[in-house]
Amino acid sequence: MKESPGVVDLLGVLAYAELSAYARMTEDAATLAPTLADRAALSELAVTEYAHFRLLRDRLAELGADPDEAMAPFVGALDAWHAQTKPADWLQALIKTYVGDGIALDFYREAARHLDPSIAELVDEVLVDEGRSQFAVERVRAGIEAAPAEAGRLALWARRLVGEALSQGQQVASARPELALLLVSAEGAADISRLFATLTEAHNKRMATLGI
After folding, report:
1. For residues 181 and 188, what is the distance between their CA atoms, to the nearest angstrom?
2. Distance (Å, rounded) from C-alpha 27 to C-alpha 21?
3. What sections of 63-131 are H helices per DSSP?
4. Nearest-CA neighbor of 199 among 100, 117, 129?
5. pTM for this structure?
6. For 47-58, what is each residue's pLDDT tens digit?
7. How do residues 92-135 score in pLDDT, each as one tens digit?
8. Of 4, 15, 5, 6, residue with least CA distance to 72
9. By three-state DSSP, how is residue 156 classified?
10. Which of 7, 25, 76, 77 lies at 20 to 30 Å from 68 by C-alpha?
11. What is the pLDDT of residue 1?
12. Distance CA 92, CA 155 (A)
């Protein structure tokens, strides 16, 4: 029996998000990393993202869904997000990996909280940090320590990222009613605003960790 459309949508958007993250990290490692060590470290994180994509793709197939069809509705929105938030340098790329991706993945984690335990466990597995935070935080803090004036520029960039990420989440949910229902069932229709407040609070904590 096929899984509900909302679950297929959630796994589909996550699968494409992981595939996109792999492609973006690989590109950033090749074009923006300032040292070979940084290139190798980011490339290793990219490989992890691809492994997560494969887990999601395989689970979609097990549920009787076509992985390509499940991802297709989200290609436009996620590609637009990456085009609108293309980093200009290494520090911006790290901020996007930590702050921008972080709040987007928080959104998907919330949607999975009340699903079948096997699905929720899979979502938790593919959203695990895998060292991404420590890698980004260490290098951004070092960059700011070396050039304190960078803090203001990066803070503006981070605010732009969170605005774009929240807008993307709202657009995806409104375009896919079955996915939006997962959020409603998890939070209650009157509490969607609380969900976005929770996401914003998590963002503020990330900003504090970065020191900006």
Report:
1. 9
2. 10
3. 67-84, 90-95, 101-111, 117-126
4. 100
5. 0.86
6. 999 999 999 999
7. 999 998 887 788 778 778 778 767 888 888 988 888 766 778 88
8. 15
9. helix
10. 25
11. 42
12. 10
